[in-house]
Every structure is written in structure tokens, then in C-alpha cells.
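Action item from last week, closing it out:
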Amino acid sequence: MAKVLGVGNALVDLLIHLENDNLLLELNLPKGSMTLVDEITRALIDEKTKFLKREMASGGSAANTIHGLASLGVETAFIGSIGNDAIGTFFYQDMINSHIRPVLKRHQSPSGLASTLISLDGERTFGTYLGAAIELSADDLTPDQFEGYDIVHVEGYIVQNHLLLETILSFARQAGAKISIDLASYNVVEANLEFLRQMVTQYVDIIFANEEEARAFTGKEPEEALHDLKMMADIAVVKIGSKGSLVKPAEAVMVVEPIVANPVDTTGAGDLYAAGFLYGLLMDLGFEKAGYIASLLGGTVINQPGAKIRPTDWDRIRKEVNGLPFL
């Protein structure tokens, strides 16, 4: 059975439904932005929204991808870092409930929490407290944690800790796993460009980027960027939003059309796209079919708030994937 290990920031998404936008002004959170906040602001957001409608789900880029793969029946595990608190326990239990093996280091800092304040017009404003999520270190890892996996999937945010990323990639390579990375954020790419290029060239087999990340990484527009990425990795994928995606596994470029969607919230779209694509590769379905499943997952998650696909939608997706003539 195929096995995938994810490594990334263990965050819990707290979806908060605002009654008006006054709180955004009070908290100095620009509407529609993603702002990193400190522990004091995190606690203030929690206090001021405790009487509003709220819901939680485990999150983080790599964790979202692993959730998608687990929901498709792949054996999975996730390495991350949480705090000794209720938020950390929630993340751990959500992993268990989703049939993902959690390999979580506990730290004294509060667990990472991404507060997502949802305005009445649907606009989302993020106040993200990283906390214990970024306290995972190279010393927390051992080579045996990477053994037995077909793919190790890493989120680009890890690159901010150079030693941690290189240790992850080195252990994954020693274990004989294919290495997949999602660049995750154009500003993170820009801040770590030389090192990230070195790591991709030396270790990475599959690279995912959206057009902004691809431009930050190569200085080029999507199709030219795709060619540059392919020179560094075996398989390159550039996602171009509503236009679909470009995949280059060999000399030819494959265009993957998007599915018809009614976007409500694009959070998690790239993460679920990666889950669908990696699933197709693991099942030896070929790149065209892997691309279709990737678009199916990415196009489904944007039809609802949050970065998780609803259970009823997963039922439909599994039926569609299992019913496809190529399976």
C-alpha cells in the first residue's frame, strides 16, 4: 500500500463569523489580509470573538494535503509541532479521526492558531499565530521517521528554518522516498531564494507552485517558469488559478483544465490540488488523470469556507474517482 509522510506547520484554523467589520479595525487587521500576530493579539482575538459563531479544523499547508490523501484512502503520517494545550490536543485528535498517524513534538509555547475572521460579504481576514508550529527543529527528527514512505511532502514555509528543511530532505532521500514540495508563498520564496533553489536542485522530485511563487522562484511567467522548474525537478507543476494548471513531466507541457466551480474561499485550493495530483501518481494513473483528480479536489474545496472538503463532498469525490474508467 502506498504511504505518504507530510512535514509542516501544525496549525488549527479557527473560522470566526463576524457580525460586522468593526472588530477588524479594533484589532488592526486590514480586511482581506494575512497578518502574523503575537501571543497577546492571539489571546485578544479569542476573547473578543468567543460569543460569535466559531468552528475549528486542523490546518497548515502540508497537513491539508495529507488530509486529502488520507480521505482518498492513502496511508499517511504527519510530522509537526504543537503546544501542551487544548488547541494542540484538538490538532492531534483531528489527525487520529482522519486516519493520519501523528508524529507531533510538544512544546511549551501555545499551539499555532490561524484565526480566520469572515466578514458578512465573505471576505476573509487572517490573524495567524505560529507559536509552537515553528518550533519544530532538526534535533526533533530521526532518520527512521522517514523510512517506509513512497513520498515525503514538505510545505515551503519550512524553508525559513534552513537546517530543518535540509535535514528533512536529507533523511527523506536516505530513506529512498520521492520528495514533493509546495512552494507555499511568494514572499517566503523571495526571502530564501538562493537556498531554496539549491535544495530543489539537490533533492526535490516534484515541485508545486502557483504563478506568483513560480515568478518569484524563476523571474518568469508561468510557462517559461515551468521549463525552469523542470530543469531542477523531475516533475514541475504551475497552478494558474481559474485557468487551470500546467504540468511538465517530460519535454511536452500538459495543460490541466479547471473544473467548473463557484468560488467562496480559495483557502486550501493548492493544498488539495497537490493531494489529488500525488494520489494519481501513487496509483500509477498517468499525468493526465492525476491532473484531473487534482483539479477535482482543488475545485471542490473552494466552494465552501475553510481549507477542508466536506464529508458529503468526499463521498461524491470517492465515487467519481472509483468510477472513472481508467481505475
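Closing note: The CA atoms of residues 37 and 129 lie 5 Å apart.
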